[in-house]
Amino acid sequence: MSDTETVERHAFGAEVEQLLDLVVHALYSDREIFLRELVANAADATDRRRFEALTGKVPAAPADAKIRIAPDKAARTLTLTDSGIGMTKEELAANLGTIARSGTKAFSRALAADAPGGADKPSLIGQFGVGFYSAFMVADRVEVTSRHAGEDAAWTWASDGRGSYTLAPAEKEEAGTEIVLHLKSDADEFLEPIRLQHIVRKWADHVALPIVIASDGEETAGNEGTALWRKPKSEIDEEAYTAFYRHLSHNFDKPWATLHWRAEGATEFAALLFVPSMKPFMAVEDERRSRVRLHVRRMFISDEAELLPPWLRFVQGVVDTDDLPLNVSREMLQATPALARIRKAVTGRVMTELGNRAKNDAEGYAAFFEAFGPVLKEGIYEDVERRAEIAGLLRFKSSATEGWTSLADYIGRMKDGQSEIYYLVADDPEALARSPQLEGFKARGLEVLLLSDHVDAFWPDQLREFEGKALRSITQGNLDLSSFKPEGEPEAESGDVGAIVAALKEALGEEVADVRATDRLVDSAVVLASGEHGPDLQMQRLLRRAGRAFGPDRAVLEINPRHALIRALGERVAAGTSIAEEAQTLLDLARIQDGDIPRDPVAFARKVAAALAG
């Protein structure tokens, strides 16, 4: 019988042309994924052989078992070799001749049904039986030569991925599988050893089985092979943790916090997470997504699984599970209850760690909050369920204390009869402490929290209250401080306050929402405030800058009846003199004090110049 007569041609066991077209053009978005899939299959095959060797079903795998990747530029082939369980002729036809038929999945089912439990069970990566066909993204012909462990016969499966495949007897000295990819003309990059090593490092760096890249007669290690997160903590020192953190994050600092644990129960996973000690060069504010890496049985799957919410995106690390179902491409994760449980558990553990450190390491936590507080504050706006918990972790500058303070500490210092937590928001943290908005509060010994982060205009309205105390912006509404007596009784106001208020209203007209006297000023003549129910002044400024202001852009002008300037204007009003020009100047002064600009900067500059010339 001739060789051609021993070659068997078979049709694929499904609508192969349509399915392979789906794999090649739609299932995977990145061509390099093919190498991850083939490496995963080789690792699974080796695990299967090791496990079945324990039961005496097959000979043991070689002590130096590895996955070998060999590019050949002259032949334009890429060859992957393993010493795994191998396949019989029937298994080649069943597993590779039927799309979406997975030998790994069938073995997993059999193992779950028949094999005893325990740590000796292998960790298997493949599930859906389509990963192998990703090879056709880069190859126009694929040959698989395999010899099942414990058998002498070897067979070669070959196909161009169109409508059929062939099976032919082959010679193979050792058990295992060899895959030869005849690369397409546009796949030259996969003949470069450096490129192959980069792909292995990215997707399979922590697969336990050694992976080597063979080139020019030498073999170069392709993967690290040590999944640090799967080791007991007792076997890992600080230096190893730091080295892994730097490798993972590309940062140069030491982690401020290291969280390493293994979760058991309905969903099992291992996690190794790091909280940096300093801001990275690339600001975390710019990237609105967590990049914690998801691994399944050591194999990297994605860093876009959103294992932590965006407001914890400064956390770096790895979560590795044996239980998580994946969709057929492994690039888009299914919204499964298991994934939801992992997310909840990981978020809860990070929050617990931050809470403990906030309580036991005030200095270290202050440095952490200086770097990542603005990101953490986003959780108040975004996460209803954890809003109160996040609020307890926030820290603030204050008009009454040095350094950082918490909302709970603020409440502990509140004056008798005080029912609200006062805060002031502005762009400039240095200007906040000098703001005229604070004068009346300081005079009465009332503490005000000073907020200057970019998110501070948004989250207080979402939190609303903390431990039963309402949050109140001191620029919003007509604050009544009359129940709190100033430390030094101010000089009584004189003149007809109502008359000057009326004169200012008439002069300013539609430029202000209202004019009123206030008792919350000491040294300044005027200050701005917002309406009772609308956004406060900082939010109004942000909306105006973003072109999203609604309604007339008008604030309330509050005057200090005890100030010498207001008294002088009152005398002019009483004498029947117009104060129209002075009213405009007062409004511009109030705007400047509040970090804004005059309505007409040029006109204001001319007034100042004229006054100085004198």
TrEMBL record:
Domain of life according to the entry: Bacteria
Binding site for ATP: 37, 41, 82, 87, 95, 102-103, 127-132, 177, 330
Cited SUPFAM superfamilies: ATPase domain of HSP90 chaperone/DNA topoisomerase II/histidine kinase, HSP90 C-terminal domain, Ribosomal protein S5 domain 2-like
Subcellular location per the Swiss-Prot or TrEMBL entry: Cytoplasm
UniProt xrefs under CDD domains: HATPase_Hsp90-like
Family annotation (InterPro entries): HATPase_C_sf, HATPase_dom, Heat_shock_protein_90_CS, HSP90_C, Hsp90_fam, Hsp90_N, Ribosomal_Su5_D2-typ_SF
Region (A): 1-330
Record-linked SMART domains: HATPase_c
Alphabetical UniProt keywords: ATP-binding, Chaperone, Cytoplasm, Nucleotide-binding, Stress response
Domain Histidine kinase/HSP90-like ATPase: 30-187
A GO MF label: unfolded protein binding
Statement: the UniProt record of this protein carries the keyword ATP-binding: yes
Region (C): 542-614
GO cellular component: cytoplasm
A Pfam family this chain is assigned to: HSP90
Record-stated family: Belongs to the heat shock protein 90 family.
Subunit-structure text: Homodimer.
Function: Molecular chaperone. Has ATPase activity.
Protein name per its UniProtKB record: Chaperone protein HtpG
